[in-house]
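Hi U.,

Before I forget, here's the chain from the pilot set. I'm dumping it here mostly so it's searchable later in email.
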Amino acid sequence: MNEQLLTVSSSPHIRASHSTASIMRDVVIALLPAMAAGIIFLGINAAILTLICIVTSVLTEFVVQRFIMKRKVTVTDWSAVVTGILLGFNLPVTAPWWLAVIGSIFAIAIVKQAFGGIGQNFINPALAARAFLLASWPTRMTSAAFVTDTYTTATPLALLKSGEVTAAGLPSYMDLFMGNIGGSIGEISALALLIGGIYLIVRQVISWRIPVIFIGTVMVFTFAAGQDPLYHAMAGGLLLGAFFMATDYSSSPVTVRGQIIYALGCGIITSVIRLWGGYPEGVSYSILLMNVATPLIERFSMPKIYGEVKGDA
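Structure:
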């Protein structure tokens, strides 16, 4: 027998072609179309803000791991880059540079590293940072913050929420699809986000279940409430959140049933906030709330162990 065929090692024994770095690189590649759309429609400041978030996120991760926690530095796994891009994508293009810096430090130092680093954070770092910035500087993150020299009106969802404009006064389907609207840097182009989302599914980086059920639930719910489901799907941060943030490995369920429950919850909470809440958008808070519920969902959706006797678990 050829002894070189046998390798003794601890579990897990399943070999996969993906690594953390390759997965994160794929996410970065998938986000590039949305980055391009942000620059085309919102200007070069979209790239500058996103770059500030990336650099600050990477530096924060390096400093915290190297000098504070004195553990192995993992900035080469690209996860801090992904967090920086996603935080930048959640900012209005008029946001000042210091807002991007504070948000990035909070995302990496408080939400990610304080809980053990990649794979240990129980909520999405970029979304938690967005919620922190929104609570701390609401005027910098909402309403007038989305008004620029190019787009002098509120975001499509804010216009829809106000009820002060008719259907003819709202941005067209084509503008929503291409990205010719106001909004956060990374959420404006449905086409760019769909390209990136499909790329991740084809590359098997994410499953179709969470984004499809999340988006589908919002469409069904808003249709039942008498609103345009296609408009709700393309406007706001639904596509960005469903494909790129709700699917975060460490803060979403791993079981099939758990992912279905989680996605349904995200869709229902988003719809309730959009239709009856105080904010025109509800994607961020829906994902964060379901992130917190993930351990409970996994507990009740975990498959039974073969031979397990009820009551012994």
